[in-house]
Amino acid sequence: MSQERAAQQAAFVNELRGELESLHGPLLGGTKLIAALGLTSSASLRQARRRGRVPVPLFTLPKRRGFFALTRDVAIWLAEARLAASHSQTGTQREEPMT
Question: What is the spatial distance between Cα 87 and Cα 96, in angstroms, rounded to a whole number?
Fold first, then answer.
């Protein structure tokens, strides 16, 4: 991977992270976390967690119900998934606009 491409990817991750943090703050939990992970319900999150298929670290907080994830971890995972999808569509690493 070229240094230019790596810089574009880092900029994309930072942009997505900034957008998510401005909308949701530093933590995602409840329905916001479920939606960000592309799941449909709290039951699907529990099932994914049991199966070890949650793509980001989850944690609990004292005196709070449910699981939480850092918004930055979710943003990094989403950006990596998006970039991997753009590469696999053509089978090569084509240049995609980072808007």
Answer: 9
Cβ burial of 69 (10 Å; 0-12, 13-18, 19+) is: buried
Those residues with Cβ within 8 angstroms of residue 13's Cβ, 6 or more apart along the chain or in another chain: 75, 76, 79, 80
pTM value is: 0.80
Neighbours of 8 (CB within 10 A): 16
Sketch the domain layout of the chain as residue ranges: 3-88
Q: How many of the other CB atoms lie within 10 Å of CB of 64?
A: 11
Q: Which residues contact 68 (CB under 8 A, 6 or more apart)?
A: 27, 28, 29, 33, 58, 59, 60, 61
pLDDT in tens, 24-61: 999 999 999 999 999 999 999 999 999 999 999 999 99
Give the integer Cα–Cα distance in Å for 75 and 56.
10
